[in-house]
Input
Amino acid sequence: METTIIITGAGKGIGRAIALDFSKAAKERKEFKPILILVSRTASDLDTVAAKCRANGAIVETARMDIANKSETDRLVENTINQYGTIDCLINNAGVGRFKLLNELNEEDFDYTMSTNLRGTFFLTQKVFAVMEKKRSGHIFFITSIAAETAFKSSALYCMSKFAQKGLVETMRLYARECNVRITNVMPGAVYTPMWGELPDEMKAVMMQPEEISSALLNAYFLPGRTSVEELVIRPVGGDINE
Ligand SMILES: NC(=O)c1ccc[n+]([C@@H]2O[C@H](COP(=O)([O-])OP(=O)(O)OC[C@H]3O[C@@H](n4cnc5c(N)ncnc54)[C@H](OP(=O)(O)O)[C@@H]3O)[C@@H](O)[C@H]2O)c1
Output
């Protein structure tokens, strides 16, 4: 049966790994026929990931947009419904961070962080949830962070946005439990992705890889529909590496 999955931030890092793993699952599970809707702001990234996913047998659409733009995300949901009939899974992965000390953060950092992590995530979730609520099935993942419940000095805005995302996750679950929709909060510690920029080798050596997060997410997804993995806390074995 076809399964329609929207993945935000699918061009790089964790979102890219999730897209690739869902496409590989199409090879391994003959009953699983994913339609992947890949979203990010950079068309060239999306094209590269889409080509790899198609080579694994997935049907893929790409949607270049800033998720903070509500009219674009509304259109994305409407187009997906018109073309594929429904949405079965939403991966709220797109996220940004400006990592600076408290007194260095400015208004632009504030608006940039909140527009993606909060505004974009909220309105897309609201629109997709209405579809799932009506059909009484679906799965929404939020890639929040351990920074959704742990403070870091260089991450005031990032932590603020991620704690707020956790508030949304927990509120959504109150609605979702009433209509058979699964909500999973994925809280990774440090994962080596483009979000971090250049890093010394000794730091890279202790960080997790994006595939380790996507693998845990797919395991949660493929459990029977009666079972909901509500939280996944995934850390480097040595714990948090950023104070
Ligand atoms: N890496 C970590 O250590 C870590 C740990 C815990 C949680 N997380 C969370 O995991 C998620 C993914 O992080 P990552 O490390 O994979 O980051 P990344 O490597 O920077 O990738 C983020 C992806 O999101 C896209 N994106 C960002 N803002 C967007 C927007 N407004 N609209 C559409 N697409 C947008 C980016 O593409 P464009 O820039 O081209 O749009 C990119 O494809 C984030 O929510 C992050 O907070 C990361």
